[in-house]
Amino acid sequence: MEFLSGVKEKETLELGELLKKDRIGQEVKVNGFVHTIRDMGEVAFVVLRKREGLLQCVLEEGTAGISEKDLREEQTVEVTGLLEEDERAPHGIELRIREVQVLSSPSEPLPLPVSKWKLSTSLEAKLNYRSASLRNVRERAKFRIQEGITRGFRDFLYSQGFTEIHTPKIGAKGAEGGSNMFRLEYFHHPAVLAQSPQFYKQMMVGVFDRVFETAPVFRAEKHNTKRHLNEYTSLDFEMGYIDSFEDIMAMETGFLQYTMKLLQEDYAEELRILGVTLPKTDRIPQVRFDKAKELVSEKYNRKIRNPFDLEPEEEALIGRYFKEEYDADFVFVTHYPSKKRPFYAMDDPEDTRYTLSFDLLFHGLEITTGGQRIHEYQMLSEKIAARGMEEEGMDQYLAAFKYGMPPHGGLGIGLERLTMKLIGEDNVREATLFPRDLSRLEP
Hints:
By secondary structure, the protein is of the alpha+beta class. The protein has helices spanning 15-18, 123-128, 130-133, 137-159, 198-208, 246-266, 268-274, 289-300, 312-326, 377-386, 395-402, 415-423, and strands at 27-39, 43-50, 53-60, 76-85, 93-104, 163-164, 170-171, 183-186, 189-193, 210-218, 231-240, 286-288, 330-334, 347-348, 351-355, 357-362, 365-372, 408-414. The two termini are 43 Å apart.
């Protein structure tokens, strides 16, 4: 009888272990993909692609029982050799190969030149051959940074007393109503894919006070733009016992500050690979919705066409204005008109045409929507009726307010949009592992 007692210690080492000074001069064993091969005559440089980066190996003719001609890109191999310092090599180390074992070989060449520093191909080609294009070092780095954003969100909110929850993505009713819902049949009952975890987040404030979730949301919007997806990842939180919606903005500011520091410390290599300069988060300005429209109208001589919403061009100009005037990368735009916000948004008691809500713009693109919610049952019921909505299907949601709820609010952050702006891309699909839009259901 054999028993497992935990994670097995491997003979093969990862890049982080190879970079320890006491490894220099030792014989070590590593595995990985053959990223590229450079034939220099009697010597060949075989670069391995590891999960943490690239490792340069030197194959000298007649020393390893294998020829450079027996190796090719995208083979997986296990290599044994002597680890040496070399400042010209990636990470300042290289491996003098003594033995090579081929673990697997590709059955056909890659459709894209993934070993190139930058994939000079169309976005369509990168998405069509996603399993290949993501092997490129730069493409891969985007999603390491995205991991860092999600990790920062989780770690920071844990530190602030939040509880992580997991809510269903199939429901009877959308949280925001309207026509932008994917409808489906659920065992002979009508159902929809979740537009947002909003109802569940609010219900759970009555349980844990502070909750968050990172999960997909679905929008059946027939957009075909560089900023829209039909499935994206939303970083959501909701918190109770707030004094005002500014508590929500302050919490998001804290998350951004924590995350930028985390990226600087733990994802420096990916930032370097992509040439990313992290944005400023020490002080984030806030401006009222109506005032923001006036400011850009006056400075950039742009007529206000829609007094109740921000057009993409206006968002871009607001971002430009605050960068030019205050050197700010982010700006909170507050007090959006009530008619453009969901029924659960708290109206401003001083002017009920507006809400105690906000968007966060990052370099002129909306990446967050949030605000204070209505927490009194009677007020919520009256607003639902005033909008001509039906309470049917929202019984469990409304019950939480009948039983009493604290003042609360929250937000949702579009992970892909935030990643896109952070890494300097102009199409959200560049920051999405497997995008879903009007024309794409695969891979």
